Amino acid sequence: MKFDSNRAWLEAMAAVRANRQVLLAVAGVFFLLPTLLSTVFLTDVQAQIFEAMNSPETVESIFSANLGLFLVFGIGGMLVQSVGYLTVMALLSDRVRPTVGEAISAALRALPTLIGVVLLTMAGTFLASLILALLLGGIVGLILGKGAASALVAITLLAALVYAAAKLSLVIPVVVNEGIGNPLAAMVRSWQLTRHNSLRLFGFFVLLMIAYLAVAFTATVALVGPVALILGEGRALTLYTGVISGAISAITSVVLVAVLAYTHRQLAGPSPDAIAETFE
Predict the structure, then answer these.
(1) Among the listed residues 117, 267, 97, the one whose alpha carbon sits nearest the alpha carbon of residue 195
(2) Are 112 and 199 in contact (CB under 8 A)?
(3) In contact, 68 and 111? CB cutoff 8 Å
(4) pLDDT tens for each residue of 109-120
(5) Phi and psi (nearest 5°) for 71?
């Protein structure tokens, strides 16, 4: 099936508007709240690191002293947001119409699979970089030198990662909507669904990224700029900026998951449950 990005976008936006109250509530808990907590607890440490940028030893010392804090908010934040992505996907599923509690339960059950996908992707990236460095880097290095070899390896690896990202972009809807619990099977299924549509999906995601950057920049300038003139530099401005950036991130996350949900629905077709409802 040829992917229709306009259809996916319109259907995703219609779903977000129809379910905006519950989606915004979920986004506030799983996307906005972690950003605010990170802003509150890490602002002082980040300010210290920024002020000590000219002294690597001081930066290392500050980072080591606050390593536990960074790990808690780094790993904890990613896990919470991952549950958020899966919860929003479950709420937009065409298989069932879950309550928020049921959607969160489904997200928690799917979380180990998503973690498995991330670990497999990291392992694959490491192996790919190692193979490219040994084979491609070695051959090109003998001919053109180490500098050219390093550049070619980096460009090739980046192109491979971008391609893999497009092919694996439907992992979350596959795990939630199709109930696939095996991480490798979920990755294979996403790879199959995106067949013959990789370039279209890549172009669609690039356009979404450009639109996000434009909207985020405009909103930040419009909402933070005037307040910065009033408050000046300080903790109040930092907290306010965290609220704005967190809100933008929360809304963007919901939109992204909705787009993935309806991209998957278009390429995979309606679920058996949805087809059965049609004939009831």
Answers:
(1) 267
(2) no
(3) no
(4) 999 999 999 999
(5) -65, -45
